[in-house]
Amino acid sequence: MKLSVSGRASAVAVVAAVTLVATGSIAGAAPAPEAVTHGSAALAAAPDIPVADVKAHLTQLQSIATANGGNRAHGRTGYKASLDYVKAKLDAAGFTTTVQQFTSSGRTGYNLIADWPGGDTGKVVMAGSHLDSVTSGAGINDNGTGSAAVLEAALTVARTGYQPTKHLRFAWWGAEELGLVGSRYYVNSLSAANRAKISGYLNFDMIGSPNPGYFVYDDDPAIEKTFKDYFTGIGVPTEIETEGDGRSDHAPFKSAGVPVGGLFTGAGRTKTTAQATKWGGTAGQAFDRCYHSSCDTTANVNDTALNRNADALAYAVWTLSA
């Protein structure tokens, strides 16, 4: 999640370069609700996303940061290596991938877009996360967790041969920490007609906080209900997300009129006694004490929260694209 407005670096996006490619891998964790009715069609339950597979991606992102000065920040070698890792997985699985290049703060940045062949391209469901970290650490919760879960959901689409009615698109954004630069560049690069084809954008930024809450964006009502239905089905109460409102990559989409939603487990705010009673964890402590710090490593992730949110991600992708 990006810094507040006062902490941002200024950013300017320049001309984009495009590349093609494709991915592959797994599903499985907390039990998902059984089939639900969407319109007149009963949807099969979404596949379970195994938290071990999501964590395997986090291990790789940690190794990349360790080998590249301790971070995966915009314009640094660790970011490009992270993008190359995700892209190679998608390439192997049959996705059509596009690398979109931009310039911010004098450094080259990249977005990665992955389209699953098929579905109605006039109705696109997108799921995305920012792939960059701050310069002070590896960024494993912020936002390796969202990036890894989106990647594993995409790989599960390929592994299961899922063929939804709508077109599926996945995205990993660059330079989010500098002020949503990559996602804004992408949205601004779309024609009005292509923006109108996106029926929903789902954002995942910090979904494995070590002292987690379960927060759902209250933007588009249908997307919000989908996430809430999932958590109700597994008996986990949720709250409306307010800490990161407008501070992550859904904001440019929302400003362009695209329906948005997403999940969050908390950053620097303090967990209240009521929230600790509701969710467990430690009252009076931040949801993520390592937010934007060097201790945001693979040790800084709550497996249960990561598991539940990865499964909620898959549930929403399958439900909204059917």
Question: What structural keywords apply?
Answer:
322 residues; alpha/beta; eight-stranded mixed beta sheet; two-stranded antiparallel ribbon; 35% helix; disordered N terminus
Write up this protein.
With 322 residues, the protein is α/β, with parallel strands linked by helices. It contains nine helices and ten strands. The protein has helices spanning 51-67, 77-93, 140-160, 181-189, 192-196, 221-233, 250-255, 273-279, 303-321, and strands at 37-38, 41-42, 96-104, 107-116, 120-130, 166-173, 198-204, 215-216, 239-240, 260-264. It has an eight-stranded mixed β-sheet with strand order 3-4-6-5-7-10-8-9, with helices on both faces. Strands 1-2 form a two-stranded antiparallel ribbon. β5 (120-130), α3 and β6 form a beta-alpha-beta unit.
Fold topology:
Elements: E1 37-38, E2 41-42, H1 51-67, H2 77-93, E3 96-104, E4 107-116, E5 120-130, H3 140-160, E6 166-173, H4 181-189, H5 192-196, E7 198-204, E8 215-216, H6 221-233, E9 239-240, H7 250-255, E10 260-264, H8 273-279, H9 303-321
Parallel strand pairs: 5-6, 5-7, 7-10, 8-9
Antiparallel strand pairs: 1-2, 3-4, 4-6, 8-10
Helix pairs in contact: 1-2, 1-3, 2-3, 3-9, 6-9
